[in-house]
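Input/output pair, single chain:
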Amino acid sequence: MIYSRRAVQLAVLTLVALPIAAVIATPPAAAAPRKRSQAEAGALARGMLADLRVARPLSIRGYSHRRFQPRWAHHKGRCDVREVVLARDGRRVRKNAACHPVKGIWYSPYDGKRLKSERQVDVDHVVPLAYAWRSGARRWSEARRRAFANDLTRPELVTVSHSANIAKGGQGPQSWRPPRRAYWCRYATSWITVKHHYRLFVTRSEKVALLNMLRTCR
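Output:
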Protein backbone atom coordinates (compact mmCIF):
# COMPACT_ATOMS: atom_id res chain seq x y z
CA MET A 1 0.00 0.00 0.00
CA ILE A 2 2.87 2.41 0.82
CA TYR A 3 4.54 1.71 -2.52
CA SER A 4 1.34 2.30 -4.51
CA ARG A 5 0.63 5.58 -2.66
CA ARG A 6 4.12 6.89 -3.53
CA ALA A 7 3.62 5.78 -7.12
CA VAL A 8 0.39 7.74 -7.33
CA GLN A 9 2.06 10.82 -5.80
CA LEU A 10 4.92 10.62 -8.31
CA ALA A 11 2.46 10.24 -11.17
CA VAL A 12 0.52 13.33 -10.03
CA LEU A 13 3.72 15.37 -9.66
CA THR A 14 4.79 14.32 -13.14
CA LEU A 15 1.48 15.43 -14.64
CA VAL A 16 1.67 18.78 -12.81
CA ALA A 17 5.26 19.35 -13.91
CA LEU A 18 4.62 18.65 -17.59
CA PRO A 19 2.69 21.88 -18.37
CA ILE A 20 5.32 23.91 -16.47
CA ALA A 21 8.10 22.28 -18.45
CA ALA A 22 6.19 22.88 -21.65
CA VAL A 23 5.85 26.58 -20.82
CA ILE A 24 9.54 26.88 -19.94
CA ALA A 25 10.60 25.04 -23.05
CA THR A 26 8.70 27.25 -25.53
CA PRO A 27 9.68 30.92 -25.07
CA PRO A 28 10.71 31.39 -28.74
CA ALA A 29 7.10 30.73 -29.82
CA ALA A 30 5.90 33.70 -27.77
CA ALA A 31 6.93 36.11 -30.53
CA ALA A 32 5.03 34.22 -33.24
CA PRO A 33 1.52 35.64 -32.56
CA ARG A 34 2.76 39.21 -32.89
CA LYS A 35 4.30 38.51 -36.29
CA ARG A 36 1.19 36.69 -37.43
CA SER A 37 -1.09 39.50 -36.28
CA GLN A 38 0.91 42.09 -38.20
CA ALA A 39 0.84 39.90 -41.30
CA GLU A 40 -2.89 39.40 -40.89
CA ALA A 41 -3.41 43.15 -40.48
CA GLY A 42 -1.50 43.66 -43.71
CA ALA A 43 -3.60 41.08 -45.53
CA LEU A 44 -6.82 42.67 -44.26
CA ALA A 45 -5.60 46.10 -45.34
CA ARG A 46 -4.80 44.81 -48.83
CA GLY A 47 -8.37 43.57 -49.10
CA MET A 48 -9.77 46.93 -47.99
CA LEU A 49 -7.44 48.79 -50.36
CA ALA A 50 -8.61 46.65 -53.29
CA ASP A 51 -12.16 47.67 -52.39
CA LEU A 52 -11.43 51.39 -52.66
CA ARG A 53 -12.15 53.32 -55.83
CA VAL A 54 -9.13 54.67 -57.71
CA ALA A 55 -9.59 58.18 -59.08
CA ARG A 56 -7.79 61.42 -59.77
CA PRO A 57 -7.61 63.86 -56.83
CA LEU A 58 -10.26 66.54 -56.59
CA SER A 59 -9.42 70.23 -56.55
CA ILE A 60 -8.21 71.80 -53.31
CA ARG A 61 -10.44 74.79 -54.11
CA GLY A 62 -12.70 75.70 -51.22
CA TYR A 63 -10.65 73.85 -48.62
CA SER A 64 -10.14 75.33 -45.18
CA HIS A 65 -9.10 73.68 -41.94
CA ARG A 66 -12.18 75.25 -40.41
CA ARG A 67 -14.40 73.31 -42.82
CA PHE A 68 -13.40 70.25 -40.77
CA GLN A 69 -12.30 71.56 -37.43
CA PRO A 70 -12.91 75.08 -36.21
CA ARG A 71 -11.76 73.68 -32.86
CA TRP A 72 -11.23 70.32 -31.19
CA ALA A 73 -14.58 68.84 -30.17
CA HIS A 74 -15.38 68.34 -26.50
CA HIS A 75 -15.32 64.68 -25.56
CA LYS A 76 -16.07 64.33 -21.87
CA GLY A 77 -16.34 66.94 -19.15
CA ARG A 78 -13.77 69.65 -19.77
CA CYS A 79 -11.60 67.44 -21.98
CA ASP A 80 -11.51 67.96 -25.73
CA VAL A 81 -10.46 65.31 -28.24
CA ARG A 82 -6.85 66.50 -28.43
CA GLU A 83 -6.47 66.25 -24.67
CA VAL A 84 -7.99 62.77 -24.70
CA VAL A 85 -5.49 61.61 -27.35
CA LEU A 86 -2.52 63.09 -25.46
CA ALA A 87 -3.63 61.32 -22.29
CA ARG A 88 -4.19 58.06 -24.20
CA ASP A 89 -0.83 58.08 -25.97
CA GLY A 90 1.32 59.43 -23.14
CA ARG A 91 2.83 57.98 -19.99
CA ARG A 92 2.55 59.51 -16.52
CA VAL A 93 0.42 62.32 -17.95
CA ARG A 94 -0.66 64.96 -15.45
CA LYS A 95 -3.48 67.36 -16.30
CA ASN A 96 -4.55 70.64 -14.81
CA ALA A 97 -8.09 71.48 -13.70
CA ALA A 98 -9.02 72.35 -17.29
CA CYS A 99 -7.90 68.87 -18.48
CA HIS A 100 -4.87 70.25 -20.31
CA PRO A 101 -1.72 68.04 -20.01
CA VAL A 102 1.03 69.85 -18.12
CA LYS A 103 3.44 66.97 -17.76
CA GLY A 104 4.09 63.59 -19.32
CA ILE A 105 6.22 61.50 -21.64
CA TRP A 106 5.22 60.89 -25.24
CA TYR A 107 6.68 58.61 -27.90
CA SER A 108 6.44 59.70 -31.52
CA PRO A 109 6.08 56.55 -33.66
CA TYR A 110 6.85 58.45 -36.86
CA ASP A 111 10.44 59.28 -35.95
CA GLY A 112 11.12 57.40 -32.71
CA LYS A 113 11.51 60.52 -30.54
CA ARG A 114 10.69 60.51 -26.82
CA LEU A 115 9.31 63.86 -25.75
CA LYS A 116 8.84 65.24 -22.27
CA SER A 117 6.98 68.44 -23.07
CA GLU A 118 3.47 68.85 -24.41
CA ARG A 119 4.82 71.72 -26.49
CA GLN A 120 6.94 69.27 -28.49
CA VAL A 121 4.05 67.07 -29.59
CA ASP A 122 1.15 67.36 -32.00
CA VAL A 123 -1.94 65.25 -32.56
CA ASP A 124 -1.69 64.26 -36.21
CA HIS A 125 -4.54 63.34 -38.53
CA VAL A 126 -3.17 60.21 -40.21
CA VAL A 127 -5.15 61.05 -43.33
CA PRO A 128 -4.62 64.84 -43.43
CA LEU A 129 -7.72 66.98 -43.62
CA ALA A 130 -6.62 68.64 -46.86
CA TYR A 131 -5.88 65.22 -48.36
CA ALA A 132 -9.27 63.90 -47.28
CA TRP A 133 -10.88 66.93 -48.93
CA ARG A 134 -9.29 66.00 -52.26
CA SER A 135 -10.25 62.33 -51.75
CA GLY A 136 -13.97 63.00 -51.57
CA ALA A 137 -14.60 64.83 -48.29
CA ARG A 138 -15.32 68.10 -50.11
CA ARG A 139 -18.69 66.53 -50.96
CA TRP A 140 -19.52 65.68 -47.34
CA SER A 141 -21.78 67.49 -44.94
CA GLU A 142 -20.20 69.73 -42.33
CA ALA A 143 -21.21 67.27 -39.58
CA ARG A 144 -19.46 64.37 -41.30
CA ARG A 145 -16.27 66.38 -41.81
CA ARG A 146 -16.21 67.34 -38.13
CA ALA A 147 -16.79 63.73 -37.10
CA PHE A 148 -13.85 62.71 -39.29
CA ALA A 149 -11.56 65.34 -37.76
CA ASN A 150 -12.39 64.24 -34.21
CA ASP A 151 -12.64 60.46 -34.73
CA LEU A 152 -11.42 58.56 -31.66
CA THR A 153 -12.66 55.19 -32.91
CA ARG A 154 -10.70 54.78 -36.13
CA PRO A 155 -6.86 55.05 -36.12
CA GLU A 156 -7.01 58.61 -37.47
CA LEU A 157 -5.48 60.49 -34.51
CA VAL A 158 -1.99 59.81 -33.18
CA THR A 159 0.46 61.76 -31.03
CA VAL A 160 3.68 62.56 -32.88
CA SER A 161 6.55 65.01 -32.64
CA HIS A 162 5.85 68.54 -33.81
CA SER A 163 8.74 68.32 -36.27
CA ALA A 164 7.38 65.13 -37.90
CA ASN A 165 3.91 66.63 -38.18
CA ILE A 166 5.27 69.76 -39.85
CA ALA A 167 7.37 67.69 -42.28
CA LYS A 168 4.33 65.60 -43.24
CA GLY A 169 1.91 68.49 -43.72
CA GLY A 170 -0.98 67.50 -45.97
CA GLN A 171 0.96 64.95 -48.01
CA GLY A 172 -0.07 61.42 -48.91
CA PRO A 173 2.10 58.27 -48.67
CA GLN A 174 3.36 58.70 -52.23
CA SER A 175 5.08 61.92 -51.10
CA TRP A 176 5.79 61.39 -47.41
CA ARG A 177 6.31 58.34 -45.19
CA PRO A 178 7.32 58.09 -41.53
CA PRO A 179 11.13 58.24 -41.19
CA ARG A 180 10.92 55.06 -39.09
CA ARG A 181 10.52 52.24 -41.58
CA ALA A 182 9.43 49.99 -38.69
CA TYR A 183 6.20 52.01 -38.52
CA TRP A 184 5.32 51.73 -42.21
CA CYS A 185 3.04 48.73 -41.74
CA ARG A 186 1.04 50.40 -38.97
CA TYR A 187 0.91 53.69 -40.87
CA ALA A 188 -0.34 52.08 -44.09
CA THR A 189 -2.93 49.90 -42.35
CA SER A 190 -4.20 52.91 -40.37
CA TRP A 191 -4.41 55.05 -43.51
CA ILE A 192 -6.33 52.35 -45.40
CA THR A 193 -8.65 51.62 -42.46
CA VAL A 194 -9.64 55.28 -42.22
CA LYS A 195 -10.15 55.69 -45.96
CA HIS A 196 -12.16 52.49 -46.18
CA HIS A 197 -14.46 53.43 -43.32
CA TYR A 198 -15.18 56.86 -44.79
CA ARG A 199 -15.26 55.57 -48.39
CA LEU A 200 -12.61 58.00 -49.55
CA PHE A 201 -11.01 57.11 -52.87
CA VAL A 202 -7.28 56.68 -53.55
CA THR A 203 -5.11 57.83 -56.42
CA ARG A 204 -3.09 55.39 -58.48
CA SER A 205 0.26 56.57 -57.07
CA GLU A 206 -1.15 56.54 -53.53
CA LYS A 207 -2.27 52.94 -53.93
CA VAL A 208 1.15 51.86 -55.22
CA ALA A 209 2.86 53.58 -52.27
CA LEU A 210 0.52 51.91 -49.77
CA LEU A 211 1.09 48.47 -51.29
CA ASN A 212 4.84 49.00 -51.03
CA MET A 213 4.51 49.94 -47.37
CA LEU A 214 2.32 46.90 -46.69
CA ARG A 215 5.23 44.69 -47.73
CA THR A 216 6.75 45.47 -44.33
CA CYS A 217 3.82 43.76 -42.56
CA ARG A 218 5.58 40.54 -41.51
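Confidence is low (pLDDT under 50) at residues 1-34. The first helix runs from residue 2 to 25.
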